[in-house]
Amino acid sequence: MGNQVDKLTHLSYDNVPTADPNGFDTEDELGPRIGVSYIFSADGDEQEERVDGPDKDQNDEEKQYDDCNELECVVHYRDETVYEKNLKLSDMSTYSSENLLNKCTPGDLVEFVATGQYPHWAVYVGDFQVVHLHRAEIKNNFLPDASQGKRGRIVNGLYKFVALPADVVVQNAMQQVGARDRELSWRNSECFAAWCRFGKREFKIGGEIRIGKQPYRLKMLFSEKQSHVLEFQSFDDLIMEKRRNDQIGRDAVTQELTYVALCCVTTAHF
Fold it and tell me: pLDDT tens-digit profile of 105-146?
């Protein structure tokens, strides 16, 4: 079933139960968890590039970006933290593509962001170029072209795995250039870029056996006292849901959870 994931349909929060009337877990590790194997959309990277329409110049005026609606989160594999986005503790400043080029070194992970769109990830390989998964093909483009007018940031520290040597990261990326469609082993640009840097098979489609209890937990942080946890059997499933949250933003996720909680309370009265 692992290789048939592209056929699966996104399940929103109203498809799964929650016990909290506010839709949140108010204390660490004590709130209800939603156990799921597949909660994700059809994919981000195919949709994100079509927002402006096919005739829009990809180097048109740079889109403005405000991170105030980004959803902070922590990902655990069993008891180990493997990913953390904390806007207060991490340097998550975004830059124009020209300024970003001055900060990149070969092997860096770059994330391009725009409000209401899925984030797009790439590997900087030097000489002003990146390698990235774009529209079902691994491409080598100049960074300003790959950004499509979005602002960008270096995100080496989000995943907590030990990085491969920079030359190996670049080699991993360059060796995949030209791969497309059925040759691909990654569901989106983030999985591909992270695989290049860390070499973990968990980033690949079907890279893990889906047996037993869900070992991955996505803890979404709304405030110091409010959070919500989802559980997953595989890492790439979790990444797909995390990316969906990045695309719709914290406010929309909050509304979804609140709506689910209200539906559950209403149902309980019948």
Answer: 999 999 999 999 999 999 999 999 999 999 999 999 999 999
Cα–Cα distances in angstroms (integers) from residue 94 to residues 60, 151, 260, in the given order: 18, 6, 34
Q: What is the residue extent of each domain of the chain?
A: 2-268
Cα distances (Å, whole numbers) of residue 168 to 19, 36, 84, 100: 47, 35, 24, 22
* Token representation of residue 48: 């994100």
- Distance, CA of 15 to CA of 35 (rounded, Å): 12
**C-alpha atoms less than 13 angstroms from C-alpha of 194 in its C-beta half-sphere:** 24
Strand order in the sheet with 227-232: 33-35, 227-232, 216-221, 72-77, 80-85
CATH topology of domain 2-268: endopeptidase fold (from Nostoc punctiforme) (3.90.1720)
Residue among 33, 30, 51 nearest 118 (CA): 51
Question: pTM of this prediction?
Answer: 0.82
